[in-house]
Amino acid sequence: MLDYTGIKCPVCGVPFRSGDDIVVCPECGAPYHRACYQEKGACIFDDLHKEGKEWKPPAPPQAPDPRAEIKDQECPVCGTLNGHSALFCNRCGASLTGEPRQYNNTAVNQGGAQGPYGGATQQGSGYGAYPPPRTGFGGTVPPFAFDPMGGVSPAEVLDTGVSFGDASKLVKQNTAYYMPVFRYMKQTGKNKFNFSAFLFSGAWMLYRKQYKYGAIVTAIMFALFIALQAVCYLVWLPMYTQLAQQAGVDLTTQAGITTEQSIVISQLLAQDPLSLFCFYLPLVIVAAMLVVMLIVGFRGNKMYMRHCIRTVRKVKATGNDGDPNNTLDARGGVNTSIAVCLFVCYMLIVNLPLWL
Fold first, then answer.
1. Which of 43, 242, 297, 328 is deepest in the core (most CB within 10 A)?
2. Range with lowest mean pLDDT among 15-29, 68-82, 145-159
3. Are the CB atoms for 269 and 243 separated by under 8 Å?
4. Is 203 helix (H, G, I), strand (E, B) or coil?
């Protein structure tokens, strides 16, 4: 026999409970309280009997889709916007139903010490200098707990009219790295080297949605790369072949160049300054590409911070939808598709000479 617990009786509408006297229609299988069935004298689902169908329990109500909900609950820990019915932050797991976490960036206690987020500390607490931080589940943070803000308070001011919480909505990915870096640059005025920006330069900027400067840097790197390929295949390789033949190098074998042959090639280059320049021109282009990469590596974090500040101010000044948090959440994050496209294009260009 099926378990009808919780299903409503079709006559009285009262849900069946464990131990109820339940009878089932022999034709369609609909359950009833015995008293309700005797009251009606027969099954009330005549349409099922005529069509020869069986009674089926009603489908359970579907839970609301968080993706279709309005995101109006801001996480008190990391500042992420969550769905209206969410109980915990979908990013850091903090509770959205308890009291909001309080931050104080200016108050200082009597001893002059500040807490880990810039607020006043409490004397005599269990942690010695400040009360133990709370997780979203009501307890204290376990050892080595992950903080999506990297120890930076979302309420802390990054720039005029812009908080770190606002900036984190734009950064989204890897906020645990960028928020402390932004605070370091704000406090010290110094840049902090970004290895990803150094390696990928313009592609990194486009990935981080800095489209204007990313397009400029990508165009410069692309032009230098094309120039390098053109110089290598059209200038350097024919000239090197000619110099090697004059020095007596047998290019048909895999034998290396001897010291005497290298000296001869150097002497031939010294006789013609233009040939000497063309011979080392690929190295000059590579050096120029390295300079661009170093500039982006050293300036990337500061440029990204300024980009976030400008975007937040622009969104707050516009206020098209009435809630800038929704706009920041929509415009934030990274552009993965453009990174994939750039990688595919790079692989095609690099391997293009092999297909010619």
1. 328
2. 68-82
3. yes
4. helix
For 142-162, b/e burial (b = at least 16 CB within 10 A) is eeeeebbbbebbbbbebbeeb
Q: How far apart are CA 107 and CA 158, in angstroms?
A: 17
In order, the DSSP letters of 63-125 are: PP-GGGS-EEEE-TTT--EEETT-SB-TTT--BSSSPPPP--SS---TT--B-TTSSB--TT-
pLDDT digits (tens, 9 = 90+) for 112-160: 444 444 444 444 433 344 444 444 444 444 444 567 888 888 888 999 8
Distances (CA, A) of 8 to 17, 35, 133, 136: 9, 14, 47, 37
Residues 215-229 have pLDDT tens digits of 999 999 999 999 998
List, as own/partner pairs, every contact residues 292-295 make where C-beta atoms lie below 8 angstroms and the sequence separation is at least 24, other chains included: 292/201, 292/217, 292/220, 292/221, 292/224, 293/198, 293/199, 293/201, 294/198
Cα–Cα distance for residue pair 93/2, rounded to 1 Å: 39
pLDDT of residue 348: 84
pLDDT value for 68: 67
Please state the φ and ψ torsions of residue 341, each to the nearest 5 degrees. Answer: -65, -40
Neighbour count for residue 304 (Cβ, 10 Å)? 24
Strand partners, 134: 140
Determine the Cα–Cα distance for residues 176 and 168; give it in Å rounded to an integer.
9
Tokens coding 104: 């104080």
The confidence score (pLDDT) of residue 342 equals 85
| Predicted confidence (pLDDT) at residue 304 exceeds the cutoff of 90 | yes
What the chain holds in terms of domains, given with CATH numbers, is: 1-57 (3.30.40), 65-83+142-356 (no CATH)
**Per mean pLDDT, which of 27-31, 177-181, 339-343 is the most reliable?**
177-181
Amino acid at 220: I
**Burial of 14 per CB tally in 10 Å (0-12, 13-18, 19+):** exposed
For the residues of 278-319, what is the DSSP string, one character each? HHHHHHHHHHHHHHHHHHHHHHHHHHHHHHHHHHHHHHHHH-
